[in-house]
Amino acid sequence: MRSKTSNKTLLIGGVAALVILGGGGLYMALQKPSATPAEEAAPAKAADQAEGEAGHADEGETPEGVVELSAEQLKAAGISIVAVSRGGGGETRLSGRVEAMTDARAAVGAMVGGTVERVLVAPGQTVRAGQPLISLVSGEGAALRADIDAASAAATAARQAFQRNRNLADQGVVARQEVEASQAQAASAEAMARAARARATAAGSPNASGRMSVVSPISGVVTNVQVGPGGFVAQGGVVAEVTNPARVELVFNAPPQLAAQVRVGSRMRVTGPQGEFDALVVGVAADAGLQDSGATVIRARPDGGGLPPAGSPVTGAVVTGNPSGGALTVPSEAVQTVDGATVVFVRNDHGFRAQPVLAGRQAGGSTEILRGLTGTERVAAANAFLLKAELAKGEAEHGH
Description:
Number of helices: 6
Helix content: 25-40%
CATH superfamily of the largest domain: RNA polymerase II/Efflux pump adaptor protein, barrel-sandwich hybrid domain
CATH class of the largest domain: Mainly Beta
Largest sheet: 6 strands, antiparallel, barrel
Number of strands: 24
C-alpha cells in the first residue's frame, strides 16, 4: 500500500516538474534577448554621424586661407580695398612746423593818411572779407572826393558841349572840325572822372567830409591792432593784422640734397600733436632758408582732414626715390602675420584670400613686396586686421 502511494507521488512530482520546465523553456524561447545600453546607443550614434556627414557634404567647406565676405559685410567692417602700386625708395625724417599760407595773412594798411576816429575790431575777433576795421578822417580823402566831383562836373560840361556842337553842325552853323574837337574833349573829361573815382575807391571811398573805412581784404581772425582812437596813421601805415586759421600748411627745413629727390606730389607721413596723418608735397624751394645756408624748404598740405594750429611743431617722413618704378608696394596696414607667415589679403569674387608674401622696406606708410604679388591684385588695406581675426576664428571652428 505504501509502495503504490510513493510511486504515485513521485509520478505526479515528475509531471509537475516537466510542465514547469517545459513552460519556462517555451517562455524563454518566445522572448527576445534584452540589449545592453551600449548596444542600444550604437545605431543612434551611427545615424547621427551619417546625418552630419551628409550635412557637411551639402554645405561644402570654405577653402583654407579664404575669408568669405559679402559686400554688405565689407562695408560694415570698414575694410578698404586698394590696388597694388609701384614705388620704393628711402625715407628721410624732417622737422617742421605749421604755418599760415601766404594768402592767409594780411597786414592791413591805410591808403591815405588820417586821424583814427574809431577802432571797430579787437584782437581775437573774427572778421569777413570787406568788413571795416577802423574809421579814418582824412584831409587827403576829402581832396580825393573833391577831385571826383570836379572831374564829374568837367565830364558833364564836355559832354554837353559836344552834343551842342553836333546839333549846330547838323544845321550848318559850326564846322565839322569843332565837333570833332569837342568830342575829344568830352572823352578826355570822362577818362579823368573815371580815374578820380578809381583813386577814391582804392583809398576806401571817402565821403565829402573825408571819412572813410579801412577794410579787411580776407576773412579770418584779427591778430593785432596797432592803432587807437585819436591816433594818426600815415599813408601805408599798418593798422591791423588778420590771419585765416583755416588756411595753414606744413613747412619743413630739409638738407640741400633733397631738393633734387623730393617732387611735388610726393607723399609724407606726418606726426603732430594730434597724431599721425598723411600729407602731399605742394612745393619744394631750394636755397629758400637762411641766407647762404643752402637749405631746402618743403611745403606740404594734409591729404584730407585739418591741421593743428599755426606754430605747432611736427615731424615728417618723406619718401625719396623713383615713384614710378621699383618694387611693388602696398599700404603697411595691409601686411599681416598669420601663423608666423607674412600675408596680404587679396580680393577675389567671394571675399579675400590670404596670400603669402616677402615684405621689404617700409617708408612713408608703404611696404615693399619683393615676392608673392604680380602687381595686378587688389588688396585689403584699412582694417585688414579684421580679416586676420576672422580667418583665425574660422580655423578654430574647423579644428573643433
